[in-house]
Amino acid sequence: MGGNLVFVPECHSTNTLALQLCQQPSTPEGTVVITNNQTAGRGQRGNSWEAKPGMNLTFSIILKPVFLDLKDQFFLNIIISLGIHDYLVTKKISNSHIKWPNDLMVGKKKLCGILIENQVQGSRFTASVVGIGININQQYFNNDTATSLSIVTGTEHLLQEELEQLLQKVEARYLQLRQNSVAKIKNDYLDVLYWKDEVHQFASNGENFTGVIQGIDDGGRLKVLRNDTGEVKTFDLKEISYLQ
Ligand code: BTN
User: Fold this and answer.
1) 199-242: what CATH class?
2) Is the pTM of this model over 0.95?
3) Ranges for the BPL/LPL catalytic domain (predicted)?
4) If I label 67, which of 28, 43, 76, 92 is the partner at 20 to 30 A Cα–Cα?
5) Parallel, antiparallel, or unpaired: how do β-strands 48-49 and 57-63 relate?
6) What is the DSSP secondary structure assignment for residue 193, as one 8-state letter?
7) pLDDT at position 215, please?
8) 216 within 8 A of 227, measured Cβ to Cβ
9) Which of 7, 11, 12, 15 to mutate to test the pocket of ligand 1 (most atoms within 8 A of CB)?
């Protein structure tokens, strides 16, 4: 990954650029599109993604996971977030977790977000654009729910070096998926899942409830045991919010 690096000083969204590049069959798998200044970064659930120019990593990886069945597409979320988690572990960060489906948390704060956009033909993937926004050297944020690598480690980091290290870890997990080690991958994901087996407050359908995250089902939906009814319910991304 990153052998073919497309650098643009400024763009609206590296995901949008990468999706355009995917249209050209000559674009090799593993191409990385990266910018210093992303002016209209896109996030999950239609949110925007803000990053101070030159301070953080905002990039997209083009994958061609033709080996993957569409019904298993959640595994892409798993291996990308696990790869980034592996990278954070190499930085001696011990309190990093993956908030379902794929936010990287350190303590209670978000350090990295991932937006995966797939191109599909029939029942197969033709390409998948994996957009990653990881806060590296930014010190101040508009909200107190975000953090950065330099806040957590107490030192500044070279963006180029961090990109290379991170891509290595993500690639290793991608190869694990290609070798079909899905049981190990799922176990590793559950081991680092944020709030798993803890009692917390959630909201769904305009209603708050107390529950305990149990894991994920075969389609990657979140399984939560509701304390009030004793039932295990499954949720899609838009169906549940984490409260406290
Ligand atoms: C989220 O947590 O909501 C996902 C954020 C994803 C942001 C990255 S930054 C690089 C890539 N380009 C985009 O427009 N979005 C992703």
Assistant:
1) mainly beta
2) yes
3) 1-179
4) 43
5) unpaired
6) B
7) 97
8) no
9) 15
pLDDT band of 198, cuts 50, 70, 90: very high
ipTM over 0.95: yes
- Pocket test of ligand 1: the residue of 39, 49, 143 to mutate, having most ligand atoms within 8 Å of its CB, is 49
Q: Ligand 1 center to residue 114 CA distance, Å?
A: 5
Check pLDDT > 90 for residue 122: no
CATH (one of 3.40.50.970, 3.30.930.10, 1.10.1670.10, 2.40.50.140) for 5-191: 3.30.930.10
Residue range 157-194, pLDDT digits in tens: 999 999 999 999 999 999 999 998 899 999 999 999 99
Domain ranges within the chain, ordered by starting residue = 5-191, 199-242
If you measure from the C-alpha of residue 67 to the centroid of ligand 1, how many angstroms do you get, rounded to a whole number?
Answer: 25
Using only C-alpha atoms, the chain has a radius of gyration, in whole angstroms, of 18
Ligand 1 binding pocket, CB closer than 6 Å: 13-15, 38, 41-44, 47, 49, 58-60, 103, 113-115, 131-133
